[in-house]
Amino acid sequence: MTSDLRDLYQELILDHGRHPRNSGKLAAATHHADGYNPLCGDKITLYLDVDGGKVRSASFEGQGCAISQASASLMTEGIKGKTVAEVLALFRKLTATVTGRDDDAALESSVELGKLAVFEGVRQYPMRVKCATLAWHTLRNALEGKDVEVAVTE
Ligand code: ZN
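Above: inputs. Below: predicted complex with zinc ion.
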């Protein structure tokens, strides 16, 4: 990655960290879950409006570092209008990309990360990986109906 591109990515994360999109409670939520990253103190509550197998809307309330909030912000933008199956495929691709683990099936899938590719750089900072994946683990829990506070353990 060139340093220009890295700067651009950093800017996107900072922008979403400072000005989160889709922030607040979703009145029409059909699913929600709480997530907590004890390593950094990041917290988010995610709200989803899932109808007919599609994510109609998503929002979150949260506090924590810029990466965790930017991740939740970009995630809620990125999953709107997608089917639950597409969202779970995105979850696998994103977490495989950020952790840098050999999840070949996920890495080779044709799922496009789009803007979410900004989090690829987080791989170089193991302490921040949980900050970037918290929103995604919370998302999976919300979709699976696990309405409990779950600390990210991966
Ligand atoms: Zn954090």
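The longest strand covers residues 42-51.
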